[in-house]
Amino acid sequence: MSEEIQTFTTEYLDQCAHLYIEVFNGEPWSEEWTFETAKARLFEILNTPGFVGFVFKHDELLGFVAGYCKQGQKSKSFYLEEICVRSHKQSQGIGTKLLNQLMDTLTAMKVTSVYLLTKKDGQAEAFYTKHGYQRSQHLILMAKRF
């Protein structure tokens, strides 16, 4: 079977939830996702208005990208919620192919910017930097725990 990129639909939800657990419960994230919580998270993203997402397959599902468009006062932006590639397949171009497919689609939709959150100073930041993303000089992440 050759590699293919397809639209992320509910058909892929269970496979993507399993992949999400594999990647984000491992290093460097060390999170504690269950199948139920991962599936619920991806279901919420998939059902957000303006959703755009793709899966990468080569004999099996190896990665996905997902997020949604948001209308601003003058243009549309895209919030990149998740990009996830099977751990042993990272650094082989799958994430780049998914990101390129996403960017082609967003360009056709007249989206003018993409933003995301990721761990700083790690492999993920290096991946995004390689693809032209940079730390925002105008925005900061603020949080409140309760």
Automatic annotation (TrEMBL):
One cellular-component annotation, GO: cytoplasm
InterPro entries linked to this entry: Acyl_CoA_acyltransferase, GNAT_dom, NAA80
Ranges for domain N-acetyltransferase: 3-146
PANTHER family reported for this sequence: N-ACETYLTRANSFERASE 6 (PTHR13538), N-ALPHA-ACETYLTRANSFERASE 80 (PTHR13538:SF4)
Record GO terms (molecular function): acetyl-CoA binding; N-acetyltransferase activity
Organism listed in the record: Nostoc commune NIES-4072
PROSITE patterns found in the cross-reference section: GNAT (PS51186)
Name of the protein described by the UniProt record: N-acetyltransferase domain-containing protein
